[in-house]
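Appendix B, record 7
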Amino acid sequence: MFTFNTTKSIIAGAGVTRHIADYVRPVLGDRILLVTDKGLRRLGLLTDIQSHLAAHGIAVAVYDDIHADPPEEDVLNGVHTARTHRATGVLAVGGGSPMDVAKVIALLSRSDQPLPEAYGVGNARGPRLPLALVPTTAGTGSEVTPIAIITTGATEKKGIVSPLLLPDLAILDAELTTGLPPAVTAATGIDAMVHAIEAYASASANNNPISRALAREALRLLGANIRMACQSGGDAAAREGMLIGSLLAGQAFANSPVAAVHALAYPIGGHFHVPHGLSNALVLPHVLRFNLPAAAKAYAEIAADAFPKLADTPAETRAEAFILELEALARALDVPERLRDVGIPEDALGMLASEAMKQTRLLVNNPRPLSEGDAYAIYQAAY
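Structure tokens (predicted):
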């Protein structure tokens, strides 16, 4: 037995946001809270969207006070803005942080549940406001996941996991991603690949054939397009391939959850403010090598999806070759490879290992059980 849930409606196509009112008004109503971040506003990505919504008689309040690794304050301020605006729906345009915050704003704006009570799996209560998400990066897949990650206190990240967070509508417009710098394109693209890899090999009881099929197609699209998207940011086909690949990976891990790569990445982001995709990339090959005794067969099965040349590699060595190709890809895309490259001191590794063990929601899905000592050894290998 397994379950599979995803966003109810997905609209994809270059330039579709030029007609965004046609898609969101029937879902979100006439008073929309638009959640984004200040960087996107400065780039002008919101100008046409706001103008189109206003031209169609939709009252829009913009909430852009969103930070990387968003703290609880970002959510609570957004809830206040939504209620003050009397929002009938929430629309997010942005990367993972605005989309995650928008999910929780939509949840809490219609509910009397305190935010701390929503953390964990299945603890969120409804109802929520209608919700539509428009990703501007090809990485998080948040537009099709029932998950939002919020920073609690100074450094710890906690997740809200509930079908209530699945958006009503996802809109994918590759034109919104063409201006992403190569470094961001690379890190978010590898993040999406991590989602597919961990979903395919997940020890979750809900690992299922639909998720596995989506993970493999995601890797095919991501592996085929990530280099071109980084080298030639205006390549429409590459950008669309990355965006669809990210969405498919999101659908996969939304139902067959991720594991130790993410568990070890979260403390890196929480304590040292390393972007999430880069945090994943830094520990990815070392976690995969740790998992080889339990997951070599799964890694061998997906290796040629991401790197077709590995189809001719003998099955018994294909999993290790897959890891080597992932390392070579990060190197070719100029993604930092070592913890020291992003300013993490060696004496922080023990603290990171201790913090990673708090991510029990994720570690339970790892193909191989992982202790604090194992986590420390992985961080040492990544250092």
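Remarks on this record: DSSP finds 15 helices and nine strands in the chain. The chain has two domains: 9-176, 180-382.
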